[in-house]
Every structure is written in C-alpha cells, then in structure tokens.
Design goal:
Blueprint lengths: L1 E2 L13 H5 L2 E9 L10 E10 L4 E5 L6 H9 L6 E5 L5 H4 L3 E4 L13 H9 L9 H21 L15 H15 L3 E5 L7 H16 L3 E5 L3 H7 L2 E5 L3 E6 H5 L2 H7 L8
Parallel strand pairs: 4-8, 4-9, 6-7, 7-8
Antiparallel strand pairs: 1-10, 2-3, 2-5, 9-10
Helix pairs in contact: 4-5, 4-6, 5-6, 6-7
Amino acid sequence: MNVARGPRAASPSISTPSAAQAPLEILDATVVYRAVRGDASDAALLEASVAFQSGRMTAIVGPNGAGKSTLLHAALGLVPMLRGEARFFGEPLSAVRRRVAFLPQRESIDWDFPITAVEVVRMGATSGLGWWMPAWLDGLRGAQEGRRARAALEAVGMHEFARRPIGELSGGQQQRVFLARALAQEADLLLLDEPFAGIDATSEAVLMAELQRIASAGGTVIAVHHDLEEVAARFDRAVLVDRTIRAEGPAAEVLASDATREVFGARAHRVG
C-alpha cells in the first residue's frame, strides 16, 4: 500500500514503462472551482497523483466533498485542471476514447430525453466508420450494432425493456442500461461515478456481477463508491481521496490504514 504524505511538489512527465501500460494514470491533478489567486485552500483537488492497475476493480473512496468525482471528471476533461495531466493507456484520452466508457451519476442525465433503452445501448455499439461508407456496408454495420446492443441488454437482464423509453425505467434499470451501453462499446476501461447510489438490490447485484466479470476477463473497473463494507468485500483495490490521494493499494489494507481512520474517524470500516 502507498500512503501519501502530502501533495506532490513536482510534475514529472509520464515516461516509465508502468505508466505506458496503466489504463489510467493521473499526475499532479489540481482543480480549483473557485480560484482566488490560486489559493490552495480553494482547491477541490490538489496535486493528486495515482496510477490504476489493469484487470482490477478499484474503488475511489473518501468523505463527502473530498474530490472523488472530481478526480474522474478531471481525468476525462469534464472539469478543467489548473495543473496536471491524465493518460489513458499511456495516451491522451482523444487517442483512445473508444477504449474508455464512463457512467456518470444518475442526477447528471436528462431522463426526459425521448430515447429508448436499445437506442441508448446502440450509442455504445456505434462503430463510427464514417459517412462515406456504401449503403450495403452501412446496413451491415447497423445489423452488427443491433446484435451487440441486444446481447449487451441481455447480459444485464434488460432485453425485455429494449423498446421502453429510458425515462420510464426505474433508477436501477437505468443504470443497467448504461452499463449495457459500455458493454456494447467493448471498452477496456470503465469509469463509474457512484453507480450503486439509489438503486434496488437486484440491480446492484446484476451490476456488481457484470463488473466483476469484466475485471476477471482483463478489463479495468474504477468506481467512486461510498460503502466501505462493500468496497472491502467486492473490490480488489482502493484509492483514498481527501482533496489529494491519501493512500492506494489492496482494498483491505487501505480501509484498515491510519489514513482511512484519520479521514473517516469513527466511521472507518474495521477490516477483520
């Protein structure tokens, strides 16, 4: 387990072999939502550096307002970094976007948008071959995308709801549809922001089983999670965030660490 003693002072470039292989590496990420002359006290995230391991399920944990979601959003370019950088498989996101899927928090999605479950999933299956393709090839692509979308919905138990408007589904069903979109995309890296918040037990079990299957098959799952007991039971690794990276390593070790007890106090999960 690695325990950080404080924000990093330097911003080295990403050049080591391990960095090139990491599905996601973040270096010295600093995010300031309310900049006042660069005052560090206003930083939502301060010089946060972490490399995630491939083929693992990693939970990002920390108290409310600690910067967990901000860490993912900054890596994806959804919020600007004041300083720092993120590399996906050793490349900028723009070079490997097809290999990365993101499931945002449910409240950030417009559920009134007129689209069905299968249409959402087909967005992930779209190959993006371009407008110039001949009609017969376009038809073949459409058939392939349809098969991938149906298979993905089947995998998460949502095939019976394929034609249902997304806004008419329950919260858990909506999350299952968005996971199906990631499956249809065949992404190598899944980033999830509080995927289990406010969903039913059945959907949580389906999501967790599918995420574990993805990691077992060599994919990488990184999820913001608030339930420390579930993290201890289900995840391989954990990253503790409290405005910066406080600790990272095997989940049991991180959750039993002094850093976790310091950050969570009496709420810290006692492993063992």
